[in-house]
Specification:
mainly alpha; about 160 residues
Amino acid sequence: MKTTDLIAIGQLSARTGVSVSAIRFYEDKGLIRAMRNAGGQRRFLRSDVRRLSFVMIAQQLGFSISEIVDLLSGLPQERTPTKADWSKISAQFRKRLDQQIETLELTRDRLDVCIGCGCLSLSNCALYNPDDRAARLGPGPRYLMERNGAAKAADA
């Protein structure tokens, strides 16, 4: 590894827009790994710019730090990830995004119907939740958590 492959924490911060304290936090969580120079100063791989960019995007999409750690665990720490390396984790990332999109679409579609109904109350709604059948499926927004939740409630 060449010394030009390494950058100081301040350079990493300037390049990514991530504060130095946040970089230390991400390092503590295992998202990036610092090396130390002879003077004990942190040095990061230039590829950590991509890692931190991925972290920022994933967080904006609602991924937790632990989920991001799991996703990035498939990337090599000792070298710059290749396109093939990123392709492996993109499949996992895509699966989660597809689930989020499905949930958002379902929410949008059901919200339109509920607004059109006018009652705005799933506990009173005779159309989608008569006699509060959804309660039998468990706590939380059952119709949004399960694609066929309304059908299960109707059968209950």
